[in-house]
Design brief:
This protein is α+β, with helices and mostly antiparallel strands. It contains eleven helices and seven strands. The chain has helices spanning 4-11, 18-39, 51-58, 81-92, 120-127, 175-188, 197-208, 215-224, 236-248, 252-259, 275-281; strands at 46-49, 67-71, 99-101, 111-119, 140-148, 157-162, 168-173. It has a five-stranded mixed sheet. The protein has a two-stranded antiparallel ribbon with strand order 6-7.
Length: 286
């Protein structure tokens, strides 16, 4: 029997469809994983950032898939498997079954990745059995957890309070640094197939909050990924020009296709997904 608190947390989202329930389940499970990490000394060494951080602690109005972390200091040998076992113990305590999967990489990188895997049919049988016939046998709910072990300097942090499944303090970047990290993705991310529209959605969220980017973190990040040379300096004016050039070449229909599974059909940001609006927003950055 699944823990009642898990079902209660899902119901707070007022899900109406199978996709709604899946998204809510994933977010509640993300909270549980974070809670487990906080019970170790993980946040003495790492910082939570990315779209899920924005969703959980800053009310980003879209769901997010992964848990992304970066170390506070460079440590290429850092291994977070033991920390993740604490999160698994937290999940086990709620009578939820999962395993942690390590997908072997073809190329070594500074990013360490693991996957929490849950049997989706089992989760639905214990929470929303009326929908279980819409779940494919052996379908998995997967949460990717990544930690970047080669850090970008210049980031500023703050501590946020997680309230479920227990109170826990989570170290994350402040909004200015989070915006800078998103701008790095917007300017530098390469697409293998479909554009990642979630980057552009999050960009609009930062613009709507009138957030100023951490320019030092942005410059250091662009240097790390080869977008800038080591001796180059980056400015707000250069950023504005680069963003306008980027937006002129985006297929915003593809961007909408990517982001739609993570937002409501009435989401007001989606109606702004066109080249002219995005180019106009650049002048709001200061």
């Amino acid at each position: 029997m699944i823990n009642d608190s898990f079902l209660s947390q899902i119901k707070k989202y007022n899900p109406n469809t199978v996709l709604d329930i899946k998204n809510a389940m994933k977010e509640v499970l993300q909270d549980i994983i974070l809670s487990g990490l906080a019970k170790s000394d993980f946040f003495k060494k790492a910082i939570f950032y990315g779209g899920t951080s924005l969703r959980i602690f800053r009310d980003l109005p879209r769901f997010s898939e992964d848990l992304d972390f970066t170390l506070i200091a460079n440590d290429i040998e850092f291994d977070f498997d033991n920390y993740l076992l604490v999160s698994k113990k937290e999940i086990d305590s709620l009578n939820i079954e999962c395993d942690i999967y390590n997908k072997e990489k073809k190329v070594d990188t500074t990013v360490q990745s693991r996957f929490f895997r849950f049997n989706l049919k089992s989760l639905f049988e214990m929470t929303f059995p009326e929908y279980v016939n819409q779940i494919i046998n052996n379908e998995l709910l997967t949460i990717k957890v990544e930690v970047e072990r080669s850090v970008i300097s210049g980031g500023l942090t703050e501590t946020k309070l997680l309230t479920y499944p227990s109170f826990a303090q989570i170290k994350t970047f402040n909004m200015e640094t989070l915006f800078a990290s998103k701008l790095i993705a917007v300017l530098n991310r390469k697409w293998k197939s479909r554009i990642k529209g979630r980057d552009y959605y999050d960009y609009l969220f930062y613009i709507s909050k009138e957030i100023k980017p951490n320019i030092l973190f942005l410059e250091n990040g662009l240097k790390k990924f080869g977008y800038l040379n080591e001796n180059e300096q980056y400015s707000i004016n250069r950023l504005k020009n680069d963003l306008k050039n980027r937006f002129e070449n985006i297929d915003f229909d593809d961007a909408i296709t990517d982001v739609m599974p993570f937002v409501s059909k009435e989401d007001h940001f989606i109606s702004s997904f066109n080249k002219h609006i995005f180019v106009a927003t650049v002048d709001l950055i200061s």
